[in-house]
Amino acid sequence: MPKVTRDDIPNWFQRKTGFDVDVEELKKAATLDRIACADEPMKLMRELWGITPRDCERLLGAPSRTVEQWFHTKSTRPASWVVRLIVEKCSILHEERLRKNSP
């Protein structure tokens, strides 16, 4: 039996179900899910994407003290559904920055 790799999964899924799967969208969703489920998602977004507390304040309209606590105090992590929304909004900001800086 041949070894199945991660790259084969979307093709296998498409053959089995008939659904067209965009591999890049699947990878993006997996990355966002990994960040949202991390112990310190804000720290991870800062390391991966350069997102700062000020960026989150502007994106969310959240109070600066609250955002600072999210970034610096593990015990004040927002609810998981809030983290997912923050990660999605921050990923959009990151993609915009990449497009702006690419030639």
Task: Indicate the multimeric state.
Answer: single chain
The termini sit apart by: 45 Å
Dominant shape: elongated
* Beta-strand segment tally: 0
Structural class given helices, strands, pairing?
A: mainly alpha
Identify low-pLDDT runs.
none
Q: Give a quick account of the main beta sheet: strands, pairing sense, barrel closure.
A: none
CA radius of gyration is 17 Å
Number of domains: 1
Tally of alpha and pi helices: 6
Let me know the average pLDDT: 82
**Helical content (DSSP H or I, runs of 4+):** 55-70%
- The proportion of residues in beta strands is under 5%
SSE topology string: HHHHHH
Set out the fold topology.
Blueprint: H1 8-17, H2 23-36, H3 41-49, H4 53-60, H5 64-72, H6 80-101
Describe this protein's structure.
The chain is mostly helical. Helices cover 70% and strands 0% of the residues. It has six helices and no strands. It starts with 7 loop residues before the first helix and ends with a helix.
Keywords:
elongated; 6 helices; 103 residues; mainly alpha
